[in-house]
Write a structure and sequence with these properties.
Jelly Rolls; eight-stranded mixed sheet; 5 helices; globular
């Protein structure tokens, strides 16, 4: 087990994990809060995990390799094949098993779960791992495990893609959301009808998102591109910085302002997984987060608009772009958001 502000998940050291019959490690981000955790699991070439079932939810993001997962669904077996960039959720207490599809290379994934919440409430391993309760409604349509889904249109930033499995987050069509930054786009997921939240966002080349803050446990994974994030608490005289690339993850601590910057030559995407989703916020603070995530703090929201940000933020970004030879798109972005 390791604990830090963030990790390069591709280099996290793993060891034998008897329960999974694979290799693994818990990588606990300091901003995980009381309800969520994260682990890394690696399946050796040509191997598989032992069958599992548990009374906590898990959202899985594939970091490397390819393979498949088999579920015991109400109508029988369901199987789907995943690869680097895939995202899926395990229906609550469903019996499942993961398989590495390669005989030469390991497969590695990260999973964010609500085990801390469940264990702290029940304090019984047998109740959590040996319970026969079934939740057939969590499986949804069989097509949801085939990469299909259902779009639930809402306001910008709140469009929901209902599914259980996304074959590749890097190619998924996103919806425009200028309120979080000109040219920004995203989609929110409802996975296996669970209470875990997930969304993916994209920043165009030479741009950055507006700063915002929220409660703990949002695990932010880099899906494509590279850049950095600045973070600070209200009143701090200086910023701290976390540089990210594919395989990186970090978790902002409770009500920590943070802001994401794309310094690469391609659009940058990131995935956020947390406890308490848009469909089932579960706790009052999550509801406030979703209501205020694109509204200015001056209006009671949780975002700092461009015109209100510290001037040093733009200067740091423009200097970074010049150093890398990337053209800034922020003049157009600010004009776009001013018109929105």
């Amino acid at each position: 087990m390791r604990e830090d502000f963030g990790f390069d998940l591709l280099s996290v050291e793993v060891a034998r994990w008897p329960r999974m019959d694979a290799l693994g490690a818990y990588a606990l981000c300091r901003g995980r809060g009381d309800f969520a955790d994260m682990y890394v699991c690696e399946i050796p070439p040509g191997s598989r995990t032992s069958p599992q079932r548990h009374l906590y939810e898990a959202v899985v993001y594939v970091l490397s390799g390819r393979g498949s997962t088999t579920l015991d669904a109400p109508e029988g077996k369901r199987s789907f094949e995943w690869r680097e960039g895939s995202l899926f959720a395990l229906p609550l207490n469903a019996r499942y098993q993961h398989f590495n599809g390669s005989g030469q290379k390991p497969a590695r994934f990260a999973a964010v779960t609500d085990l801390p919440l469940v264990f702290n409430v029940f304090r019984s391993e047998s109740f959590i791992f040996e319970n026969d309760a079934t939740f057939p409604e969590r499986f949804g349509d069989a097509r949801y495990n085939e990469g299909d889904g259902r779009l639930i249109p809402r306001a910008p930033g709140r469009h929901i893609w209902e599914t259980n499995f996304v074959p590749d987050l890097r190619t998924l069509e996103l919806k425009r959301w200028d309120e979080r930054g000109g040219g920004s786009s995203n989609i929110v997921f409802a996975l296996a009808d669970g209470t875990m939240h997930a969304h993916i966002s994209e920043m165009p080349v030479g741009t950055y998102k507006k700063a915002h803050r929220h409660g703990a446990d949002f695990h932010v994974f880099t899906v494509s591109g590279h850049g950095y994030s600045l973070y600070w608490h209200e009143g701090d005289p200086d910023f701290k910085r976390f540089d990210w690339k594919f395989g990186s993850v970090f978790t902002p601590t409770d009500m920590l302002f943070h802001q994401h910057f794309n310094t690469g030559g391609e659009p940058a995407r990131y995935l956020a997984i947390a406890f308490g989703g848009m469909r089932y916020p579960t706790i009052a603070d999550k509801r406030k987060t979703f209501e205020g995530m694109d509204k200015s703090v001056k209006a009671g929201g949780r975002q700092i608009d461009y015109e209100d940000e510290d001037p040093r933020i733009r200067q740091i970004f423009e200097n970074e772009l010049r150093r890398r030879g990337v053209r800034s798109g922020m003049a157009e972005v600010v004009a776009t958001t001013a018109r929105a």
